[in-house]
Amino acid sequence: MNDTQGGAAPAGAAAAKGSADFAAPPAVQEIRGAAYAVRTAGDGPQTALLLHGWPDDGRLWRHQVAPLVAAGYRVVAPDLLGFGASARPEALERYTAPALAADLLELAAAKTRGPLHLVAHDWGAVVGWQIAAEAPERLASFTTVSVGHLGAVLALDHAKLSALWYYLLAQAPGGAQALLAGDGALLRFFLASHPDGPGVAEALVRDPARLEAMRRIELAHPVDRLLAAALEGGEAPPPVQVPTQAIHGLADPLMAAAQVADSAAFVAAPWHYLPLEGAGHWPMLEQPERLAAALLAWFAAHPAAA
């Protein structure tokens, strides 16, 4: 009893400090010629690298920081290129999954000690799958949230393909104008299920250049070409050799549940599919405690080697 109480105070203090550190302005780190904004918290021996998606930045994970730090993990959460306070290079080749994976692996080498736990959402998950496939030795575990392996996303399935309408629109020549038309009516509709949606949409309507910068990751992954390549067949991608947890909110209006569940076919390692009742596309905001618990359980089951 006394030991438990004695350990709770330091953990609580660490969590409070971690949350405060995470809320501070991000540090800037130059990676392969581009400035990344990076938030960090905690100083534990194992590291969790958290990747956000569209239209967020590293603050998306703010509710998971305290429990992760309290459990002894170090948290690293960069803003992806084109998002938040990170650089906005114009060249689309800087936004491809392989290019961003190279950036983030370099960031991880500078910020982490040993294999890390990778957690990724939305477009961050696309990059996360790339990292898991090409650098399994760098990861202790991988958790993808809301988005499955591209092989499952692009399968011939009505529910899966119907969910790609936004990406096709965003990549059309007039996509940005359509999203901003009518005081951002379509953008506000698309973000209606985002817990921070009204504020995020308003900020993008006021700053179209920010929306244009965030579109570059979408333009760098043309859905029509990716789908055509998938249908042409060719060499199958190598299976992911990292313990992989896939979390999906069953109320997600944007991505079909099957594209997450079916990703098991692309993983040759321990696999765990966790559907969340009542959660949508952003479970880290909708069910923050449940998501943190799922992360901690997966990390504990697959600890990083010393």
Characterize the main sheet: 8 strands, mixed
Instruction: Enumerate the strands of the largest sheet in spatial order, edge to edge or round the barrel.
Output: 1-2-4-3-5-6-7-8
CATH class of the domain at 11-161 and 239-301: Alpha Beta
| Individual helix count | 14
Task: Give short descriptive properties of this protein.
306 residues, alpha/beta, Rossmann fold, 8-stranded mixed β-sheet, disordered N terminus
Please render the helix and strand layout as text:
Elements: H1 2-23, E1 27-31, E2 34-41, E3 46-51, H2 62-70, E4 73-78, H3 97-111, E5 116-121, H4 123-134, E6 139-145, H5 150-153, H6 158-162, H7 165-171, H8 175-190, H9 197-206, H10 208-219, H11 223-232, E7 244-249, H12 257-261, E8 271-276, H13 283-286, H14 288-301
Parallel strand pairs: 3-4, 3-5, 5-6, 6-7, 7-8
Antiparallel strand pairs: 1-2, 2-4
